[in-house]
Each structure stands twice: as structure tokens, then as C-alpha cells.
Amino acid sequence: MVRFYPATHLPHSSEGFYAINNPFQTNGPKWFSEIKWLDFDMYLRMDLPGVGSDPDVVDISVDDSKKGVTIKALAPCLNINDSFPRSYDTYIGLGCHCCEISSVDNPQVTDGVLRLILSTTPIKGDDGAPGPPQQDPESTGKILQPHPGLSEGPASAYEYKQLLDGSVYVRLDMPGVSDVDINVDFVNYRLIVVGDAPTVSHDSGGRS
After folding, report:
1. What is the predicted pLDDT for the residue at 127?
2. Reduced DSSP (H G I as helix, E B as strand, rest coil) percent helix, strand, coil of the chain, to 5
3. Domains along the sequence of the chain with CATH
4. Could you tell me where the beta strands, DSSP code E, fall in the chain?
5. What is each CA distance from 166 to 4, 8, 81, 172, 191, in whole angstroms?
6. pLDDT band at residue 2, thresholds of 50, 70 and 90?
7. Sign of the CA dihedral 66, 75, 106, 134?
8. Can you give the three-state secondary structure of 86-109, one letter per residue?
9. Quick check: helix, strand or coil at residue 57?
10. Which pLDDT tens digit goes with each residue over 135-178?
11. Average pLDDT over the chain, rounded to an integer
């Protein structure tokens, strides 16, 4: 019978995990989301692990103030051994008083990552520019953080289950990693999984 001992709680260094949003990440932009201003438009990259490309499982609505959007998404069980589905419900604001949202452009979910652009229009009488990008919290540390937008379902970036036939089922969250960008190997009784998430659109960089 296979015995599985997860090593995800072993920090990468004395400082802790490289990225407290995912114990498997070793380089690239940290945290669950990334915001970048493109003149008066705002680019958003948000990790939604388990969410597929079906547009019907993601709902994006602009609030009445036109200062932010609510994002709701469903990550169904993709395997009979997944413990529970996951749901996300989060709010992203512009963080400024100089403009308002005019449209949500080209929202797409690929490999568990939502990307979109919030087009904005300046508010009459305000000549200011959009505020600086929202700052991520401290992203390296010894305590892993759950997804702030997760409203239901398992918070861990992995789960494993010993099956009756002696095999082991493993689920790992690697947002942005496609089927062709992942390599799985078994070396010295250890399962080694390596994945690369390439830079897409206005991402500040790729991740692995």
C-alpha cells in the first residue's frame, strides 16, 4: 500500500514560504491577485483555483457607485475524490475618487486565473489620476493564508486521500499552470511536481 506524507508545510527558507498564498510557489509575483493601472483602465489578475473556463460559472457585477466590482465564481468538484466544491465571493475597488467604472472588458478564466480590464471614465470636475496600485500584504512568511475571496469549500492549496485500492489521490492548486506546462516525476519514493505559469496579458511576470 502507498503511504503518502505531504511536505507542503515545510517552508522554503528560514523566512518561511516564498509566497504565503501558495506553499508550492517558488518564484514570480506573489499573492492571490495583481492590479495594474493602464492609464485610466485597471488590469486585474485574480487566482480562482479550480474555476474553469465556462463563463457561466463566473459572475462579475459593477456596484451602484461604479467604484468596484463583485466577483462570484464556482469551482466544481472535478474528480470524484475531491472533498467539496469551492465558491468565491470577493470585491475589488478602484481605490480612487477620480474616475468610475464604465465597463468590464474581456473577462476570461484560464487555468484557474481570472483576467479582466476595468475601463473607467474620469469624473467631471476631477483632474486627478488613478491612485497607485493596491499594495499586497506581506507575502513571505511562515503562516499560509487562505484565499480572501473563498466563501465555501476547502481552504488548503492541496488535499490528498488514501483510496481503498492502496493508491493515493492528490489535488494541488497551481493557478496559471496548464496541462502542458506541468511535469510529474517519482524520484526516491518522492512525488515531484513542477509547473510553470507563463506571463499572460499584462501580468508582471510568470510563476513557478
Report:
1. 54
2. 5, 40, 55
3. 33-128+136-195 (2.60.40.790)
4. 33-38, 41-47, 58-62, 68-75, 86-93, 99-110, 113-122, 150-152, 158-162, 168-172, 182-187, 190-195
5. 10, 22, 14, 20, 16
6. very low
7. positive
8. EEEEEEEECCCCCEEEEEEEEEEE
9. helix
10. 555 676 777 788 889 998 888 888 888 888 878 888 888 899 88
11. 83
- 87 touches 153 (CB < 8 A): yes
The residues that bridge with 195 in the sheet, in sequence order, are 182
**Are the CB atoms for 133 and 10 separated by under 8 Å?**
no
Sheet with 68-75, side-by-side order of all strands: 58-62, 68-75, 86-93, 150-152
DSSP 156: S
User: How far is the C-alpha of 108 from the C-alpha of 116, rounded, in Å?
Assistant: 7
Interval 90-138: pLDDT, tens = 999 887 778 899 999 989 999 999 999 999 988 865 555 555 555 555 6
Given a contact cutoff of 8 angstroms between Cβ atoms, the answer to whether 46 and 33 are in contact is: yes
**pLDDT at site 184:** 83
pTM given for the model: 0.84
- Residue 18 DSSP label: S
